[in-house]
Amino acid sequence: MNNLIPLKKGSKIGIAASSSHFKKEEFEKGIKLLKESGYKPIYSDNIFLKDGLFSGTAKERVQDFNCLISQKDINTIFFVRGGYGSVEMLPLLKKLDLSKKIKGKIFMGYSDVTALFCHLYQKYRTPMFYGPNIISRHLDTKILDCLSEPKDLKIKVQILRPGAKNISADLFGGCLSVITSLAGTQHLGSFKGKILFIEDTNEAPHRIDRMLTQLLMSGTIKGIKAIAVGSMENCDTQNYGWKNAVLRIAEEMDIPVISGINAGHGSFDYPLPIGTKARIDFTNKEFLIYSPFKNKK
């Protein structure tokens, strides 16, 4: 695993557009926050390109992303927004060797950016931060501070289905619907032996059940150690909720489930490290995620 270099005041932050097109005024609001917080956002005019629903063609988005990570003085990459489109970049990225370029760099994004993160993790085993995009309402100075003051993240959680003993394993995941869309492709590896993190928005419980069932039947999540659930915004109905769906799958797999991780579409209390080591303490109801940074506190 890479040892990431913490974000410092005055640092350049590369801004990439991997998915849907966006409103310039929302983009400028996020850029203003970065500048006022003491950082230097770096981006090209290419991110304002529009190709149908997307921020330029897949080729243009890959070229822009590759250009950003090739710059040695840019150690952090944020993404503009989610929506849809990152998956189009994956066949092109697969042809490239980015191992030296991404070493030590911070990547932060969520939602549709999950597809890109799945590719980067499978190919390079680099840790990332599942956190707000540039136009997200959740991006604030508290989130930025977490990237500049690295330390292990300890979260008090709810135990929905306990385990027989504490669990230590790699943590990886993201937006459930995006992960499921990659099942059966060469861009999504096995989650065997890992703690699976999931979150989503506006997905009915039966759809959550369907997606988890597909991941299980495809073998993608066979052998996972536990499920850690983040924000599940508007994913309940009156008589059946997301918890029912997740617990049904967990009982079939005989694995524990924890929730109360405030990361996802509905809320972000912190950027969640993924692709790094984590530990579930069932006795103390704590979820400890080890910092991927060098010289952590």
Task: Produce the secondary structure layout.
Blueprint: E1 12-16, H1 24-36, E2 40-42, H2 58-70, E3 74-79, H3 90-94, H4 99-102, E4 106-109, H5 113-124, E5 128-130, H6 141-148, E6 153-156, E7 158-161, E8 167-175, H7 176-182, E9 195-201, H8 205-217, E10 226-233, H9 242-253, E11 257-259, E12 272-274, E13 276-281, E14 286-289
Parallel strand pairs: 1-2, 1-3, 3-4, 4-5, 8-9, 9-10, 10-11
Antiparallel strand pairs: 5-12, 6-14, 7-11, 8-13, 13-14
Question: Could you describe the 3D structure shown?
Answer:
The structure is a single chain. This protein is of the alpha/beta class. It has 2 domains: 12-148, 3-Layer(aba) Sandwich (Rossmann fold), CATH 3.40.50.10740; 153-289, Glucose Oxidase, domain 1 (3-Layer(bba) Sandwich), CATH 3.50.30. The chain has 9 helices and 14 strands. The protein has helices at 24-36, 58-70, 90-94, 99-102, 113-124, 141-148, 176-182, 205-217, 242-253; strands spanning 12-16, 40-42, 74-79, 106-109, 128-130, 153-156, 158-161, 167-175, 195-201, 226-233, 257-259, 272-274, 276-281, 286-289. The strands form 2 sheets. An 8-stranded mixed β-sheet has the order 6-14-13-8-9-10-11-7. It has a 6-stranded mixed β-sheet with strand order 2-1-3-4-5-12. Strand 10, helix 9 and strand 11 (257-259) form a beta-alpha-beta unit. Helix 8 runs parallel beside helix 9 (242-253). The longest helix has 13 residues, at 24-36. The chain starts with 11 loop residues before the first strand and ends in an 8-residue tail after the last strand. The relative contact order is 0.16. The mean pLDDT is 96.
